[in-house]
Write a structure and sequence with these properties.
The complex is a heterodimer. Chain A is an alpha/beta fold. Chain A has helices spanning 18-21, 50-53, 74-80, 94-102, 112-122, 159-167, 170-177, and strands at 6-11, 57-62, 86-89, 106-109, 127-132, 137-144, 147-154. The chains are: A alpha/beta, B alpha/beta. Chain A: It comes from Teretinema zuelzerae.
Chain lengths: 178, 427
């Protein structure tokens, strides 16, 4: 199973689409690794620089409708090869969300006000996310001027989604069951 | 309680309900193209699972970059070509016979009311125009589809759009769907089926219905769907009648059978929207989301560098006819590049026979082979940084047609008028 604990990349925008996650011109690549340098390269979000801000991150926190647009699984792959295995948002486009679970990754929703609170408390700080799958909690932690900020939120995966995350993806599950 | 069409299709195709709302459905069709399928093929090969569930239910085409533009796209072509050969997939469309996936598969009669269809392409929702449940999927779902003929979906709710009235002159199905996306937003139908009904849909051609369903994904919809009717029967008749598979002896018999794939009058919807199409105007997108829509009048005068007519949304013969009617005896404005891509070889040939290709060429358009080409900036018509294109395609994401480029989505008639004026203009 993937590791979901680590540093957070904040992308304060709604409707980040699959063309922004990985432009179509790179869909001619036939390995996931080849996508690594191009992840989010054209994304316009204030204060975000793809060359310096992606490295070392495990999670993305963003707003509504993340992953809209193309069916390309290259979008989750581009995140995966950069070490990003979990995206937390107000909501996702259906195909992108399913692709994440099919790859054994997590795309999970918090309420708009919770996402807003996470942005207000942590954006701009070096923030750690720890995920407790059994308890169904997301814990954010950051230190600013010696003071520690911590927030914990409940999240819920569907039974099928949990099974895919545990099985390591849909191909293995389907091959065993159908 | 009555059921929606999508619910009836789910219930007739369910293989398993492993967990809660996730239903595993049996698939009637798995469509493939050369951008997303070779990765699936290579992964299946590496897992030692290089088999297909049914070569007759799998259809494949090379359409996104064709002819190949470089060594990488040549390799993608080779992977899918060899795979089709290895597994005796007889309906494989390569150079000379290939066209845009969501145009060529319907044209070959591969979709039927009540079918389940997946493809590694978000605009697979187009095929819902035939009363099918058709959805775009990623590579992993595609792999399982190829291998096992199944796919998992959350049991979807349905939003019904009732379109009544008569389209004003110059207003087309493209204007209707753009207006609907504006109304509900780019995630207004996430996880939902968008059902299009009403007298304006009843009197719409299959081409128009495909344009409507094609853009369901731009509102987040899992699929678009229209109820099969006499128009559907007429379109499919050469495949299902005595000249084709001989499934039906008469059109009445086909229609009676197709009618079982209708939503019940007392079906439960998540929402119902009523739209009087006589109030609609020609519209186009601005900005970088498909729900950013204004009337052409409001956007009039916006300069363009390129006009693109084609794609799985509006590259069919009806679309080319609409554009040609506007372009006839006119010329593209100086400084504007006009590009038209007939969506399939049959569309191309029909357009030649009707004199439409000549009208385009006389107007100064470049006519390309059938391909997805410029739509997603993969080949044939990429924009330079800062350039603007009026396009009949389905996405206006920033840089979609090329890094730094802007796309205004509109109908073929509006795109043709814009080409002549050199700036956004009503037909």
């Amino acid at each position: 199973m993937n590791n979901f604990n680590g540093k957070v990349l904040f992308l304060d925008r709604s409707d980040i689409n699959t063309d922004e996650i990985i432009p179509a011109k790179y869909l001619t690549e036939i390995s996931k690794e080849a996508l690594k340098p191009f992840c989010l390269e054209d994304l316009k979000v204030e204060g975000f620089n793809p060359k310096t801000d992606i490295a070392g991150k495990t999670a993305i926190v963003t707003r509504a409708n993340f992953g809209c647009g193309s069916s390309r699984e290259h979008a989750p792959w581009a995140l995966e090869v950069n070490g990003i295995t979990i995206v937390v948002a107000e909501g996702f486009a259906r195909i992108f969300r399913q692709n994440m679970y099919n790859c054994g990754m997590i795309a999970t929703e918090l309420k708009a006000e919770e996402i807003d609170e996470v942005f207000k408390t942590f954006a701009g700080l070096e923030t750690e996310l720890s995920v407790d799958m059994a308890a169904g909690t997301l814990s954010f932690r950051a230190v600013k001027n010696g003071a520690v900020s911590e927030k914990k939120y409940s999240f819920k995966l569907g039974e099928f989604e949990s099974a895919l995350v545990s099985a390591g993806g849909w191909v293995a599950y389907a091959a065993a069951n159908y | 309680m009555g059921k929606t069409l999508a619910q009836k299709i789910f219930e007739s195709h369910v293989v398993d309900k492993p967990f809660g709302e996730a239903w595993v459905l049996k698939l009637d069709r798995v469509f493939c193209h050369e951008i997303t399928t070779p990765v699936a093929i290579n992964d299946l090969v590496s897992r030692g699972m290089d088999t297909v569930f049914d070569p007759d239910k799998i259809k494949a085409v090379i359409d996104h970059v064709t002819p190949a533009k470089d060594s990488k796209t040549a390799e993608q072509g080779r992977v899918i070509r060899k795979w089709a050969e290895r597994h005796a997939i007889k309906d494989f469309f390569d150079i000379g016979k290939n066209g845009v996936c969501h145009a060529i598969f319907p044209e070959k009669g591969f979709v039927r009311p009540g079918f389940t269809v997946i493809m590694g392409d978000s605009h697979t929702c187009t095929h819902g125009a035939f009363g099918a449940f058709a959805a775009g999927v990623g590579t992993t779902d595609l792999e399982v589809g190829i291998l096992k003929g199944v796919c998992a979906f959350q049991y979807p709710g349905t939003i019904r759009f009732e379109l009544d009235g008569k389209f004003p002159c110059g207003v087309t199905p493209k204007d209707a769907i753009l207006s609907i996306i504006k109304m509900i937003g780019v995630n207004g139908a996430t996880n939902k089926v968008m059902e299009f009904a009403g007298s304006a849909i009843d009197s719409m051609s299959m081409e128009g219905r495909m344009t409507m369903c094609n853009m369901a994904i731009e509102a987040g919809g899992t699929s678009g769907v229209c109820m099969p009717d006499a128009v559907t029967v007429d379109y499919l008749w050469k495949f299902i009648g005595p000249e084709g598979e001989g499934v039906y002896r008469t059109k009445e018999e086909a229609l009676a059978d197709f009618k079982k794939w209708h939503s019940d009058p007392d079906a439960q919807y998540d929402a119902v929207h009523k739209i009087d199409v006589s109030t609609l105007s020609p519209v186009a997108t601005f900005g970088f989301k498909p729900d950013q829509v204004k009337t052409i009048k409001e956007l009039a005068g916006t300069k363009v560098d390129q006009v693109y007519i084609g794609s799985c949304t509006n590259g069919r013969i009806e679309d080319l006819r609409q554009a040609a009617a506007v372009l006839k005896a006119k010329s593209v404005a100086p400084g504007v590049r006009g590009i038209v891509s007939p969506a399939t070889p049959a569309v191309y040939q029909q357009a030649m026979e009707e004199g439409i290709i000549k009208i385009f060429m006389d107007a100064g358009f470049c006519v390309t082979n059938p391909t997805c080409g410029a739509c997603l900036g993969m080949s044939n018509g990429v924009l330079a940084d800062g350039e603007v294109c009026a396009s009949t395609t389905n996405r206006n994401f920033f840089g979609r047609m090329g890094k730094g480029g802007t796309v205004h989505l509109m109908s073929p008639a509006s795109a043709a008028a814009t080409a002549i004026a050199g700036s956004i203009c009503e037909a």
